Each structure stands twice: as structure tokens, then as C-alpha cells.
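Bumping with the actual sequence this time:
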Amino acid sequence: MKYLKKIELAKDFNSSKNESFGMSVNSCDRCNGPTNNSTTTSMFNQQTICMSCKDEEKKDPEYDAACQMENEEIRKGNYNYPGAIPNYTPIRLLNN
């Protein structure tokens, strides 16, 4: 039954009226640089970021804790988790 509901929802989706659910964006939400069609979601918030920003994010001392919190929320069924630090500022910007 759940499968049929998903099909019905998919049929009702009109991409010209609704937001796209893809992660294909031209510029990074964090650095505004080009993504070259390679993106991921931040572990700290809901930004779609480029791979360079992801590499920088992994250097943050709180990264492992953010990953753990994300996994715990998913296990609870919370797929709309806003991230461990919704107003996250990368360390490199804090040090400037």
C-alpha cells in the first residue's frame, strides 16, 4: 500500500510548480563557488555544498559528533533533521 501512495504522489508532482528535490546546483550554498555538478549536504546544516567545502568541513573538530547526531536522528525516523548546528560557520571563516 505504501508503494502505491508513493506512485500517486509521484504522479501528482509537477516540476514546473514545485521545488526540485535534486542536489544538482551550479553554485555552493557555503562558498558560492562552482560545484561542477558534484555536491553533498553538510553534516552541520541543510546547505548543499561543493566537495571543497565538504573537505574543509571534515576538518572541523565537531564533525564526528555532527555525523553521530545525524545518524541517531535517522535511526529515530527523523529524515528532516536540520543538522547539528543550523547556523554553522566554517572554522576558516571564524579565524578571519
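The C-alpha cells above came from a reply further down the thread. Helices lie at 2-12, 51-58, 63-75, 91-94.
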